[in-house]
Amino acid sequence: MRIVFCLLLVSFITSCVTKALWRGTGYDEEIKQFFVGSDGRYIVFVARDYHYVFTDNSKLLQQILSLKQSGVLSLNTKETYLNLKSNNDVKGHLVLEGEFDLLPREDMIKLQSMGFNPDREYRIVIKIPLIGRRYAARYLGQGSIPNENIYKIRIYYSDPSLIKGVGKAAVTPVAVTLDAVILIGKVVILPFKLFPVY
């Protein structure tokens, strides 16, 4: 019995330490714009000093953006986060939420078919996993797309050297113009706007 208790205690402590390493140190990144690829594969977060480029082979975000709802689902900036590793790889979740009963019936059916169901308070929470890379932003010039909202997303890291300079990150493959966002030879033409929940 004592051995089992010790094992459980060690497991709990390890879990807490791991969480503390990731969640203990971080900074708030101001995201000026979001873009999703026309094929639903690429997602781009545009900030002042960095661009965060993700690949979403599941195309989950594209399915969410195709819903008929307007303004019901919002970006939860407190729950959305990224973990930053020493090689500038990033991993985290984009969290959307809203009142389920305010959604059009078609959207309710589609979300439930995708495995998203309302909680006891009849709110729906959608977590979209993100895996990608952080790049140093280059000067976008006067043709860059103006931002209407600033979204603050928490970036956690375990290596303090990650925030000391932009130079260690590769230059972004993203170029923003008035007409489109060019990403790795593909045109990302669908900017998406979400009302932030603070």
Explain this structure.
The chain has 198 residues and is an alpha+beta fold. It has one domain (26-197). The chain is 19% helix and 38% strand. The chain has helices at 2-23, 60-65, 105-113, and strands spanning 26-36, 42-47, 50-55, 74-76, 81-84, 89-99, 123-136, 151-157, 174-176, 181-183, 186-188, 190-191, 196-197. The strands form two sheets. A seven-stranded mixed β-barrel has the order 1-2-3-7-6-5-8. A three-stranded antiparallel β-sheet has the order 9-10-11, with no helix packed on it. The protein is elongated and about 50 Å long. The model is unreliable at 4-22, 140-144 and 183-191 (pLDDT under 50).
Helix-and-strand structural type: alpha+beta
**What characteristic shape results from the CA principal axes?**
elongated
Overall pLDDT confidence? 73
Portion of residues in helices? 10-25%
Q: Rg to the nearest angstrom?
A: 19 Å
SSE series: HEEEHEEEHEEEEEEE
Percent strand: 35-45%
Widest sheet, order of strands:
1-2-3-7-6-5-8
Which blocks of ≥5 consecutive residues have pLDDT under 50?
Answer: 4-22, 140-144, 183-191
Number of domains: 1
Number of helices: 3
| Distance from first to last alpha carbon | 45 Å
The counted number of beta strands is 13
**Main sheet record:** 7 strands, mixed, barrel
Question: What's the gist of this structure?
Answer:
It contains three helices and 13 strands, in the order αβββαβββαβββββββ. The protein has 198 residues and is of the alpha+beta class.
